[in-house]
Write a structure and sequence with these properties.
Helix content of chain A: under 10%
Order of helices and strands of chain B: EEEEEEEEEEE
Largest sheet of chain A: 6 strands, mixed
Strand content of chain A: over 45%
Distance between the termini of chain B: 37 Å
Radius of gyration of chain A: 14 Å
Shape of chain B: globular
Largest sheet of chain B: 7 strands, mixed
Number of helices of chain B: 0
Strand content of chain B: over 45%
Oligomer: heterodimer
Chain lengths: 115, 115
């Protein structure tokens, strides 16, 4: 069975601080995909990134960066120089495949950026 | 990019009535659609997976007679909550994919309140 753990339920940081959201996963599959989604108050899920299990390279996209470490089964997400617009719930998710497999979501981390 | 719509975006119904939620892929053919449920401040939990033209596969614990899913065409899936009760009040989100090698695209969600 697959499992995703986001131990941080809520995080508050002051604007412009850096913040890291943790994600630890469990799976028996050798091929799998990891995702991060942002859910603002409107409720609509915003796709942030997808990573497959064979690609351990870290990725940076603007103020966002992701650290994938298979050795610790972690896929952490860092926001640099946080902004108020970053306030949302962030979900880490795991899937055995791309489109035709369900996503297993973590419990989410509610991030609040204090102006 | 691929767009998935849901209708209605929110609905209020009385206990005992049925309500239908539509999920449409607007610019691609969705061979697989997923229905997730999210209770307030909780994670997304998969309810069922549907493939066009075949019966939906329900997750353990989800009542198939209560949550009727129909995926009659490659662009439309519907979720009908039959004899709704206040405990069915939740945020229902669909996602759609046009094949195993493709992304899942999420709809904006439908907020159901049963009074």
């Amino acid at each position: 069975a697959q499992k995703v753990t986001q131990a941080q339920t809520e995080i508050s940081v002051v604007e412009k601080e850096d913040v890291t959201l943790d994600c630890v996963y469990e799976t028996r599959d050798t091929t799998y995909y990891l995702f991060w989604y942002k859910q603002p108050p409107s409720g609509e899920l915003v796709f942030l990134i997808r990573r497959n299990s064979f690609d351990e390279q870290n990725e940076i996209s603007g103020r966002y960066s992701w650290n994938f470490q298979k050795s610790t089964s972690s896929f952490n997400f860092t926001i640099t120089a946080s902004q108020v617009v970053d306030s949302a719930v962030y979900f880490c998710a795991l899937s055995s495949n791309f489109g035709n497999e369900k996503l297993t979501f973590g419990t989410g981390t509610r991030l609040t950026i204090i102006p | 990019g691929a767009v998935v719509s849901q209708h209605p975006s929110w609905v209020i119904c009385k206990s005992g009535t049925s309500v239908k939620i539509e999920c449409r892929s607007l610019d691609f053919q969705a061979t697989t659609m997923f229905w997730y449920r999210q209770f307030p401040k909780q994670s997304l939990m998969l309810m069922a997976t549907s493939n066009e033209g075949s019966k939906a596969t329900y997750e353990q614990g989800v009542e198939k007679d209560k949550f009727l899913i129909n995926h009659a065409s490659l662009t439309l899936s519907t979720l009908t909550v039959t004899s709704a009760h206040p405990e069915d009040s939740s945020f229902y989100i669909c996602s759609a994919s046009d094949g195993p090698a493709y992304e899942q695209y999420f709809g904006p969600g439908t907020r159901l309140t049963v009074t």
